Amino acid sequence: MEHCRFLNMDTLNVTIYSIGHSNHTWDRFAELLRPHEIELIIDVRSLPHSRFAPWSNRNQFEENLNRIDIDYVWKGDSLGGMPRGSGRSTGKHDRSADDWYQTRSSAPDFLAAIVEVSRLAAGKRSAVVCSEGDPSHCHRTLLLAPALVNLGVEIRHIHPKILGVTFSTAFNL
Predict the structure, then answer these.
(1) Residue 173 domain flag
(2) Is residue 143 one of the residues assigned to a domain?
(3) Residue 43 phi/psi, 5° resolution?
(4) Strand 154-158 relative to strand 166-168, pairing
(5) Is 158 in a helix, a strand, or coil?
(6) At residue 126, what are phi and psi to the nearest 5 degrees?
(7) 41, 65 Cβ separation under 8 angstroms
(8) Mean pLDDT for each consecutive 10-residue tract of the chain (173 residues)?
(9) What's the CATH number where 11 sits?
(10) How many structural domains does the chain have?
(11) pLDDT for the residue numbered 1
C-alpha cells in the first residue's frame, strides 16, 4: 500500500498549515498567510464556492493566489468534508459526521490524496483551506489532521482572528 511506503520516506520536518477563509476579505486572508510564507494552497472544499467570500470561488481564488505567487491545487473531490456519491445518503437517516469520517479515513482515494498532499508539503510551504474559520469545527481537524499526523506531518492552524498565531494539533495515536 502506498500509504505504508510513504511512512518509510525521508520526510522529516514537514508542516502543513490549516486555515479557513471564513467571511474574511481577500486582503485579510492574504494577510493571514503572509507571516507563514505559504507557497501552495490546497483547497479541500468539496464545493469550492462561497457566497460569503466570493473571492474564494475556485477560479477567482486561483487567480488571486497566483497574483501573490502562491500556487493552488484543488483536492476537494478526495479530501472534502461534504461527502457525495453512494457512500453517503442525503436523507434524514444520514450517518453522523463522526461515523462518515471514520469510514472515509480508510478509503483508498482518501489515503492516496493524503499521501499526495504530504509529498506536496515536503516541497513547498503548504496550507489546506476550506471555508470554516474555526478549525475545531472543521474537517481539516476532524478528518484530515489525524491522517496527516499519522504520516508524521505537523499540522499548524492559522488562527482566523489573531494575526500570526498558530496552534499545533496533537492527537493521541
Answers:
(1) no
(2) yes
(3) -80, 115
(4) antiparallel
(5) strand
(6) -120, 155
(7) yes
(8) 46 85 94 96 95 94 97 96 56 62 92 96 96 89 94 89 50 39
(9) 3.40.1010
(10) 1
(11) 39
Contact 17, 156 (CB under 8 A): yes
Instruction: Extract the C-alpha cell encoding 26.
Output: 481577500
β-pair type (40-43, 71-74): parallel
In whole angstroms, what is the distance from residue 112 CA to residue 144 CA? Answer: 12
Spatial contact of 13 and 153, defined as CB atoms under 8 Å apart: no
Q: What is the spatial distance between Cα 173 and Cα 169, in angstroms, rounded to a whole number?
A: 12
- Long-range CB pairs of 4-7, under 8 A, 24+ apart, other chains included: 6/115, 6/118, 6/119, 6/151, 7/151, 7/152
Domain that holds residue 157: 2-83+94-168
101, 128 in Cβ contact below 8 A? no
* Residue at 88 is within a domain: no
pLDDT in the model for residue 85: 52
Return the DSSP state at 37.
Answer: T
